[in-house]
Design goal:
Length: 383
């Protein structure tokens, strides 16, 4: 049986694509290695842009998420600074004329809301379906499934987080030699929607307001992360306080410490015969600017649009794939370059860079045009 679209991976990006296609009178099948009700990843705080909210609103997921207790926390202000040098800037939602600069959403709450929405929309999701290879002929895409029949479709859209199973797509990797240590963190005062991004000698530290606490993302060397993970809670809080300083007040409690290696990995091209990769499978970014998932959601929205604008017979043909790749090219490369540039300028300890860094932050604070451009980038991406 030839499906119109086979989506490999029902993570946040693949699920959003499936929901965006749900009203399109198309035969869509979604394949995911997860068992039903299981979440792939450990909890992490995702910073969603205003543009990402609009995409989730169109899929009917946002109202459900927003109604759940503590699932969505608006960021109304971001305090950006660097440790041991001058330069501070504050970005305010009020200055942008929006209710919030962005939103913090827990990965698990988002995945649960998307899974529910897929079930409500009647989308065919095959759980426990592990794709072992994805390839294409000029006529159709073929997805090989562990212990089951091959699934064929006019188009295979691969959002499996790695893109490793896809034939014909070369990948490039840059290891930052850094680890992100994440945890839930409490401080003496309520967060009031204020996020912090602090650039330190070891790399950036972000505090994202989430529910009644902060989601901590502490970028550091793998060896230091190991040492920090081994500390008891009190010693960890003392180490963080010393590293971060007193800008955010006193830290009082920490739970759920975990770590992830950080790398930039991207597909050189996002399309091969009858296949596309999107989301993390197309680009896995450093979390410094909170852009990864936001770019992935825009991939999903863009691909859905390209499919819906194409006649059924032409779905997955070269012309459609070329149109999709062209429509995403500038936003995708800009997201990669913006994040990588931010890590290169702010994520290291080159003393000579400290002064220009401070200048950049100060200029951002004093130049309304630059500030607006920066806020726009964080909210809607680069085009
Ligand atoms: C520490 C950290 C913090 C982050 N913070 C942010 C942030 O603040 N803002 C932001 O925008 N992004 C952030 N990101 C990135 C964000 O987590 C990813 O962009 C997002 O998870 C990508 O979603 P995805 O659907 O592409 O892939 P995934 O979340 O990896 O989902 C992939 C899905 O595919 C399925 N799958 C995998 N392999 C197979 C297979 N072989 N066959 C079938 N199914 C398969 C999985 O079960 C899963 O459901 C962060 C990342 C890290 C590491």
């Amino acid at each position: 049986m030839l499906h119109d679209v086979a989506i490999v991976g029902a993570g946040p990006v693949g699920a959003t694509l499936a929901l965006a296609l749900a009203d399109g009178d198309l035969d869509v099948v979604v394949l995911d290695a997860r068992a039903r009700g299981e979440t792939l990843r450990g909890e992490r705080s995702l910073a969603l842009s205003h543009g990402a909210r609009l995409i989730l609103e169109r899929c009917g997921v946002w109202p459900v998420l927003a109604a759940a207790t503590d699932a969505v926390t608006p960021i109304v202000e971001i305090d950006i600074s660097q440790a041991g040098a001058f330069g501070i800037t504050r970005l305010c939602a009020a200055e942008s004329g929006l209710p919030a600069l962005g939103y913090v959403v827990g990965y698990r709450a988002l995945q649960a809301a998307l899974d529910d929405a897929l079930a409500r929309a009647g989308v065919e999701v095959r759980h426990g379906a592990v794709a072992t290879s994805v390839g294409g002929t000029p006529a159709y895409a073929a997805v090989a499934i562990e212990g089951a029949d091959v699934v064929t479709a006019r188009l295979a859209a691969v959002a499996d987080g790695t893109g490793a199973a896809v034939a014909g797509i070369g990948r490039q990797r840059h290891d930052y030699g850094q680890t992100a240590l994440v945890a839930k963190l409490w401080r003496s005062a309520p967060h009031a929607g204020l996020a912090y991004e602090r650039f330190t000698r070891q790399g950036p530290v972000a505090l994202l307001p989430e529910g009644d606490h902060y989601g901590l993302v502490w970028t550091t060397t793998p060896r230091h992360a190991e040492t920090l993970l081994a500390l008891d809670d009190a010693a960890f809080l003392a180490a963080l306080q010393e590293h971060f300083g007193t800008r955010a007040g006193g830290f009082t409690r920490v739970v759920d410490r975990r770590s992830f290696p950080l790398a930039l990995e991207f597909a050189r091209t996002t399309a091969a015969t009858r296949c596309v990769v999107l989301g993390n499978a197309a680009q896995t970014l450093h979390p410094v600017a909170g852009q990864g998932f936001n770019v992935g959601l825009r991939d999903a929205a863009g691909l859905a649009q390209a499919v819906l604008d194409t006649s059924r017979e032409a779905i997955g043909e070269r012309a459609m794939l070329d149109r999709y790749v062209r429509s995403r090219r500038s936003d995708r490369w800009a997201g990669i370059a913006f994040t990588h540039g931010l890590v290169s300028v702010f994520g290291n300890d080159v003393p000579l860079l400290r002064w220009p860094r401070g200048l950049a932050l100060t200029l951002l604070d004093t130049l309304p045009v630059a500030k607006r451009a920066f806020v726009r980038t964080m909210l809607f991406g680069l085009r």
